[in-house]
């Protein structure tokens, strides 16, 4: 197994990635933030978000002192917003219980919101050079091909085999370079489609390649069937101002600011909302509908523009506010809300 890790280390030093923003002046904080961002997000997408996030929150203390709105604003558009809320929760715990230092202990990391086994392993190996395995999507693909590990990589028996293999392959030295090399190899050479086996340092030991079945590994994961749903977004509008409410801890976009939404648009509910907000309806019109994919749900978003009488003081309350269309840069909003706002400007 030492030859395997040696080949990865040598390859990473010569051909791996060295200029990603979280690799430059690498710190435990930058590793932690980048690993959370890279959950469910491609590197090319995460780079710009990471740079902006670090500019605003350069360390754990600055993040811990932030409000949820401030954190979600920097995350707006990246999706899977629970990651951002978990970062904020974890930062506050790190300041309160770990003196502001990212834990270097496995169990302490695992007790932080949003950190699982692979993320903890990445932080420990990349930031602290400790001997812990990781198992992100790229690493799963490399191991499944090299050792012909059959079955969907999200199936429990396959995951157990992958974790056992990952642990057995860990080197005693240069574990940070090895870990980075495995991720880089999967991302740049052993890609999901059209892998460049001719330049792979593991080609002579890759069983899937040697057996001529590289395209069959790893087996596709079992996916949930896509569901079609309709969501109405009601835009209370007056003089280039719209009424927004902050999402609660539940719903599609918890913690984000958005329009009043519902899977149905019964007339009595609309009038009830107007009464609660002390508004008078002047006219109603439907804007152009559009599709928005959220996890396994394909939403048809139907914006409803409701012109109302001038906003009164009674119309605002905690979690509800009138916002000028030109002032949205400071609020965390979802992609569909941003798209509607752009169409109203």
Q: Quote the distance from N terminus to C terminus.
A: 60 Å
CATH class assignment of the domain at 13-132? Mainly Alpha
Unreliable sequence segments = none
* Helix percentage: 40-55%
- Return Rg in Å: 24 Å
What is the CATH homologous superfamily assignment of the domain at 13-132?
A: Hypothetical protein, domain 2
Biggest sheet record: 8 strands, mixed
Please provide the ordered H/E string of secondary-structure elements.
Answer: HHHHHHHHHHHHEEEEHEEEEH
On the 0-100 scale, what is the average pLDDT? 90
CATH architecture label of the domain at 13-132? Orthogonal Bundle
Number of helices: 14
If you had to describe this structure to a student in words, what would you say it looks like?
Among the domains are: 13-132, Orthogonal Bundle (Endonuclease III, domain 1); 227-344, Nucleoside Triphosphate Pyrophosphohydrolase (Alpha-Beta Complex). By secondary structure, it is of the alpha+beta class. Strands 1, 2, 3, 4, 5, 6, 7 and 8 form an 8-stranded mixed beta sheet that branches. Helix content is 42%, strand content 15%.
């Amino acid at each position: 197994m030492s030859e395997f890790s040696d080949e990865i280390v040598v390859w990473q030093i010569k051909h791996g990635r060295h200029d990603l923003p979280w690799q430059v002046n690498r710190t435990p904080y930058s590793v932690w933030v980048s690993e959370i961002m890279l959950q469910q997000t491609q590197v090319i997408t995460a780079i710009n978000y990471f740079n902006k996030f670090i500019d605003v929150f350069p360390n754990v203390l600055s993040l811990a002192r932030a409000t949820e709105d401030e954190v979600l604003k920097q995350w707006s558009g990246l999706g899977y917003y629970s990651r951002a809320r978990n970062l904020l929760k974890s930062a506050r715990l790190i300041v309160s219980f770990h003196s502001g230092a990212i834990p270097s202990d496995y169990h302490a990391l695992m007790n932080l919101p949003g950190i699982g086994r692979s993320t903890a392993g990445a932080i420990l190996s990349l930031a602290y050079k400790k001997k812990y395995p990781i198992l992100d999507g790229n690493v799963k693909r490399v191991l499944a091909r090299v050792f012909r590990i059959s079955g969907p990589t999200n199936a429990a028996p396959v995951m157990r085999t992958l974790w056992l293999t990952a642990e057995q392959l860990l080197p005693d030295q240069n574990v940070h370079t090895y870990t980075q090399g495995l991720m880089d190899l999967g991302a740049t050479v052993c890609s999901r489609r059209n892998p460049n086996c001719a330049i792979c340092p593991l080609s002579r030991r890759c069983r899937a390649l040697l057996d001529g079945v590289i395209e069959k590994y790893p087996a596709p994961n079992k996916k949930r069937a896509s569901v079609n749903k309709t969501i109405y977004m009601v835009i209370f509008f007056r003089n280039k101002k719209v009424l927004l409410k902050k999402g609660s801890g539940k719903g599609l976009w918890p913690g984000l600011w958005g329009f009043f939404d519902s899977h149905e648009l019964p007339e009595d509910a609309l009038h009830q909302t107007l009464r609660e907000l002390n508004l008078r309806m002047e006219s109603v019109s439907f804007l152009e509908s559009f599709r928005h994919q959220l996890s396994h749900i394909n939403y048809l978003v139907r914006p409803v523009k409701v012109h109302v009488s001038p906003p009164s003081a009674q119309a605002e309350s905690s979690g509800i506010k009138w916002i000028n269309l030109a002032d949205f840069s400071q609020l965390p909003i979802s992609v569909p809300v941003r798209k509607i706002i752009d169409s109203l400007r």
